[in-house]
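job 3f2a | input accepted
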Amino acid sequence: MRIFVIFDMDGTLYDLYAPFAEAVRQCLKEETPPDDVLKQIFAASRRYSDELRGQGVNDAEQLVRQRSRLAFSDFGQPLSEAQSIELQRAYASAQAHLRMEPAMRNLLACLREAGAQLALLSNGDARHQREKARQLGADAYIPVQRQFFSGMIHRDKPDPALFRWVEEQLQVAQGDVIWYVGDSYEADVIGAHDAGWRSIWSQAYLPQKQLSVNGTIDRVAVDLDELREQLIAVLKGEEWDEMCRKR
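job 3f2a | predicted structure (247 res):
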């Protein structure tokens, strides 16, 4: 039996809110909403992102502009077309300097050394997402041939067809176990459940934690320390646990 641990990327391997907040402050300056409101706008933009993808909006630049205008309008601060373009460009610039936290790098290294089969599955345009994965340094832990993006087959999470396709690429056999780690309840947790995978809902980088949901859920991790503990429980390996504690 092999244990696959497959990660989402945006909002899971790195803090997606940080580049968003940086871009907003750069563009709106003194008109930037208070931090608590900005976090709600960010959460709304993430929801709109999934909705827009479902409507066929896949161009990365167009997606950022549309979801930003929708999210800000919900909170009584509509953006002009010029502002949405400026925000999209500032956001792209901030994402050019993405880095994973040392704790996440350490976790991936421990998983790899423990023999877990690591992979990546993210929604989005393949070229754009592949470049982000490279900038993050994901290649050091997850082979490029095990990095999968929905744009490769034009099916987005939570479509079970995308998960099935990943299984085929990884040559998952009967008896193998797949755990999926992601930050979106709708796209990641529900998508994994419908595909017969197990899931860990990572809220480490969610500005607003959501601890109660209606539906099936395997595990929840509210920060990176808890995510690590959840994965220790999944692998059930004392040797792996001890090895990671020495890092």
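job 3f2a | The mean pLDDT is 90.
job 3f2a | closed
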